[in-house]
C-alpha cells in the first residue's frame, strides 16, 4: 500500500541503500523530489526537476492543483506503460517460437543463421552475396536447448528492469541495435568461414546498459561488474562461442544506454535517437566495408 507523502523512508537494506517505498525488495539511491521517498526505476516519473513517485504525480494532476509533470515518464523520458515488461515478453516469445520452428524443420537454420559467404565451389549465399537479412534473423535463432535457455533467462532478468526504466521504444532500439552490432562485428572478423547464431549479442548489450543504468542511479556496481566479468570469462574460454557477437553487442549497448540515460532534458530526443542513429550508421558501414572486401 502506498505511504502518505512525507512518511519516513524504508529502512536500508544490507547494502546500506533504502528499498523502494512501493517495492521494498528493490534497493535504490533515488528519491522523489517532492516527498523524498525512495523510488526504483519502475516508479520513477520524470518531472521538471528530478524524478517523482507515482503517488505525487497523481496528487499533482488529479486534485485541482497544477501538475508538476505534464505526463508520466520513465527515467529516460519514455511513456509509462501499463505493462512495463511487454516488449521483453514479446521478444522471448519470438525467440521461443523460432526455436520451435527450427526444431521441427532444422533446414531453416541454414536459411537464417549468420553466414558471411561460402567458398566458390558452393552456391553463392550469405551476407556478402546480398542476404543482409541474416544479420537480423540470426539474432532470434537458437539450435541447442541450453543456448536458448541461458539467453532467455538473461533477457528476462536484464530486459524487464531496463524496459521499465527506459520505456518500450528506447528499450527495443537498444536490444535490436545491440544485436545487429554483434552480428556486424562477427561478420567483420569471422566471415566468411564461421557461421553464427543466437541472441547473445543483444543480451550482452542489455548487460552493458544495465551497468550504465546502475551507475546513473548510484547503485552498487559490484554485482553487475562481477556478472559481466564472469560472462566475459566464459566468452573467451569456452569453445564454440562467437566472442565477436558478445563484444560487439556489449559495446553498442553501453554506448546507446549512455546516450539514453544521460541525455540533457532540453535536447533529450535529439541526443537519444542521434546516439541510436550513429550506432546504426557505424554498423552499416562495417557491413558494407566487409562486403566489399569479400566480393
UniProtKB/TrEMBL annotation:
It is a multi-pass membrane protein. CDD domains: Bbox2. It is an enzyme of class 3 (hydrolase). The chain crosses the membrane at residues 86-104, 140-159, 171-190, 196-214, 221-239, 245-263, 270-292. The lineage of its organism: Bacteria, Bacillati, Actinomycetota, Actinomycetes, Kitasatosporales. This is Rhomboid family intramembrane serine protease. The keyword Protease applies. One of its GO terms (molecular function) is peptidase activity. It comes from Streptomyces monticola.
Amino acid at each position: 500500500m502506498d505511504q502518505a507523502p512525507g512518511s519516513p523512508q524504508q529502512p536500508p537494506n544490507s547494502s546500506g541503500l533504502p528499498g523502494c517505498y512501493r517495492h521494498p525488495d528493490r534497493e535504490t539511491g533515488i528519491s522523489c523530489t517532492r516527498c523524498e521517498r525512495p523510488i526504483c526505476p519502475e516508479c520513477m516519473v520524470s518531472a521538471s526537476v528530478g524524478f517523482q513517485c507515482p503517488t505525487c504525480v497523481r496528487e499533482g494532476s488529479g486534485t485541482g492543483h497544477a501538475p508538476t509533470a505534464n505526463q508520466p515518464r520513465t527515467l529516460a523520458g519514455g511513456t509509462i506503460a501499463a505493462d512495463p515488461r511487454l516488449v521483453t515478453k514479446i521478444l522471448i516469445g519470438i525467440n521461443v517460437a523460432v526455436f520451435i520452428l527450427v526444431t521441427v524443420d532444422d533446414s531453416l537454420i541454414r536459411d537464417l543463421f549468420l553466414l558471411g559467404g561460402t567458398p566458390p565451389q558452393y552456391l553463392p549465399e550469405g551476407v556478402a552475396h546480398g542476404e543482409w537479412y541474416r544479420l537480423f534473423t540470426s539474432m532470434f535463432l537458437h539450435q541447442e536447448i541450453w543456448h536458448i535457455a541461458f539467453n532467455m533467462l538473461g533477457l528476462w532478468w536484464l530486459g524487464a528492469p531496463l524496459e521499465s526504466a527506459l520505456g518500450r521504444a528506447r528499450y527495443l532500439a537498444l536490444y535490436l541495435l545491440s544485436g545487429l552490432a554483434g552480428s556486424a562485428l562477427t561478420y567483420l572478423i569471422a566471415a566468411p568461414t564461421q557461421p553464427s547464431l543466437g541472441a547473445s549479442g543483444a543480451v550482452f548489450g542489455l548487460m552493458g546498459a544495465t551497468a550504465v543504468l546502475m551507475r546513473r542511479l548510484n547503485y552498487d556496481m559490484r554485482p553487475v561488474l562481477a556478472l559481466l566479468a564472469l560472462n566475459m570469462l566464459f566468452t573467451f574460454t569456452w569453445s564454440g562461442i562467437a566472442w565477436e557477437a558478445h563484444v560487439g553487442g556489449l559495446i553498442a549497448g553501453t554506448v546507446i544506454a549512455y546516450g539514453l540515460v544521460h541525455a540533457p532534458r532540453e535536447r533529450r530526443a535529439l541526443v537519444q535517437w542521434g546516439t541510436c542513429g550513429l550506432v546504426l550508421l557505424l554498423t552499416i558501414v562495417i557491413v558494407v566495408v566487409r562486403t566489399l572486401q569479400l566480393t
